[in-house]
Amino acid sequence: NASSSTFRRRTLLKVIVLGDSGVGKTSLMNQYVYNRFTQQYKATIGADFVTRELQIDDKLVTLQIWDTAGQERFQSLGAAFYRGADCCVMVYDVNVSKSFESLNNWHAEFLKQADPADSDTFPFILLGNKVDVDGGHSRVVSEKRAREWCASKRNLPYFETSAKENINVEEAFLCVAQIALSSD
Ligand code: GTP
Ligand code: MG
Question: Which UniProt keywords apply (predicted)?
Answer without folding.
Answer: GTP-binding, Lipoprotein, Membrane, Methylation, Nucleotide-binding, Prenylation, Protein transport, Transport
